[in-house]
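Sharing a chain and its predicted structure for anyone who wants a worked example. Both blocks are below, sequence first, tokens second.
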Amino acid sequence: MLRLDFGTWIVVAAALALTPIAPAAAQLGDEEEGGAQPAMDDASPADPAARSAAPAAPPPEEAAAAAEEPAGEGEAEPDMGDPTESGLIRDEQVIAEEQLGTETVRSSTDPYEDPTRAYYFLGVGYFHTWTPEFIIDLFTDLAQPASNPALGLQFTYRKDGFDIVARAWYQTYAVEGPFRGPGDTIQETEFINSSLKTIFVGADFMWGTAFNDIFSIQYGLGIGLGVVFDELQRREAYESDGPDSIDGWAPCAAPSTPDPLYCEAGGDYGTEPKWANGGSVPNVWFRIAPQLGFRIKPIKQLVINVNGGFDIVSGFFLGGSLNVGLN
């Protein structure tokens, strides 16, 4: 049997007491050197295999270097001042609007017109023609000023501010009073009574300058061709201030009646023939009319035109039309 003295027992006891303390002291030293370690969750695996599956934290030097390293090798930071590179939603929206445009929602009565689109209108028009005395005096020594109304239908094709107006209208050429041709003597004065009428077809070509969607100025040319019908009566005239007189002249009732000086036997007492029969009444009549006007479109479905000008073969005119949109 091995016998140990008292000194030996003391050394053995001290060694046994220090054995569990050494690993703890070593672990404490590592924590002081590398920083405090997080406490292990109660649910964390305690066995060595589970601990080995968890990734190890990088050393402090490597973590600091990773933080200073750029996001990607060779990748430049986006230019926040460039909408195409900023990546911001608001910049992408602006780019999309510039590329695709913005859609304007208009009401069903908005008078706006797309310049790339054709528009169609159907309307009714009225105008009045005056042949003033100073124009008549250029071609006669005595005649009555004419004032003739016209009424018709019209169809308008419009695109990009340009109108083509196809028209059909009825116009009267009624006039009554004394007439004397250039160079005729006073005894050759006649009294005319016209019930002539004309049915025209024609077109107006109108350009425009728009101030807004509602109001514009138009300018252009109207042309037309009409068929003349009804008749013109011619009678010799004598000077009179009676109830049937006009401007001091009255029609003779018959040759030599009531005044043989003026009511000559070989004069005119009846209906004047048309051109086709050798007379002076035209079979057709024309319209050549430079004009200026206003176009007012208060709503999409309605257009009001007011036009005036000078018809080269008939005189001054003024009129207007009311048109309804078809599309």
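Comments welcome. Helices lie at 6-18, 21-34, 48-53, 60-68, 83-86, 89-100, 133-136.
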